[in-house]
Amino acid sequence: MRISRVVMAPGGMPVPISTLIGLRIPLVGQSVHAGFPSPADDFIEDMVDLNDVFIEHPAATYLWRVVGDCMIDAKVFPGDVVVVDRAYTPRHRDIVLVFMGGDPTLKRIKRRGGAMILHNENATLPDFTVDQGAEVEVWGVVTATLRTLRK
Q1: pLDDT tens per residue, range 102-147
Q2: Which of 48, 71, 90, 133 could be a cystine partner for 76, CB 3.0 to 4.6 Å?
Q3: 107 and 92 share a domain?
Q4: Is residue 42 domain-resident?
Q5: How many of the other CB atoms lie within 10 Å of CB of 143?
């Protein structure tokens, strides 16, 4: 799975979320049911900045667009945008953005004994065991996935 950057500065480096403008969206005071509808209120409870919902560490958070299918069993699909936070220390079972041989990719990090395994969430693809001296950099932890259902 390749990853393409969503927001890039001149020179090709990703731009941290903290440099972007906030986006405030109305939050309706009533919950929405995913089954049978209930009467809706025409009441807006608050304005919510999506940065407050998805971003904990703005200066260390980046958006990346997903290409490829190595994470489809984790419900991360081509075209999705992942929120990647570099301030978190990766833990067992986190989905991480990793540079392997200089290329960014998404993997689930696993630890077995003293070994670090980079797991593809696609049953047709093999895992990658990180050997000492391997060209692998765990760049950040995926904290959210954004998906457009209709444009």
Answers
A1: 889 999 999 888 889 999 999 999 999 988 778 889 999 999 999 9
A2: 71
A3: yes
A4: yes
A5: 18
Give the residue carrying structure tokens 């991480």: 96
Residue pointed to by tokens 């403008």:
21
Which amino acid type is present at position 145?
T
Domain count, the chain: 2
pLDDT digits (tens, 9 = 90+) for 48-78: 777 888 888 888 888 888 999 999 999 999 9
Give domain status of residue 28, yes or no.
Answer: yes
Instruction: Assess if residue 13 is contained within a domain.
Output: no
- For the record, the structure tokens of 148 come out as 């457009």
Q: Is residue 151 part of a domain?
A: no
